[in-house]
Amino acid sequence: MKTTLTITGRGVITLPAKLRQAMGLSADDQLIAETTPEGLLLRPAVTLPIELYSDERLREFDEAEAELAAVLKKKSH
């Protein structure tokens, strides 16, 4: 799909709805812009959610690892 975009005085580019829909883009999605020999390439930025672990959650991980180590130790004997 080809389309013409306009850059405002503030540098804002609006992607037409049909283009956003075709690419599966929605409000607040991030794009990476890079220059290529052919021109400007826009592509979706991959973002992954992160979880900040509480002390309680870290203890759960430690307990699960200890249980796994015990099971593996029994199987190796």
Describe this structure in words.
This protein is of the alpha+beta class and 77 residues long. It is built from two helices and two strands; from the N terminus they run H-E-E-H. The protein has a two-stranded antiparallel ribbon. A hairpin with a 2-residue loop joins strand 1 and strand 2. The model has no long low-confidence stretch (mean pLDDT 92).
Oligomer: single chain
* Main structural class: alpha+beta
Helix content: 25-40%
The stretches of 5 or more residues where confidence is low (pLDDT under 50) are none
Rg over alpha carbons: 24 Å
DSSP strand (E) fraction?
A: 15-25%
Continuous helix count: 2
Principal-axes geometry comes out as elongated
**Order of SSEs, N→C?**
HEEH
Biggest sheet overview: 2 strands, antiparallel
Question: Strand arrangement, largest sheet?
Answer: 1-2
Tally of strands: 2
Alpha-carbon distance between the two ends: 63 Å
Q: What is the typical, i.e. mean, pLDDT?
A: 92
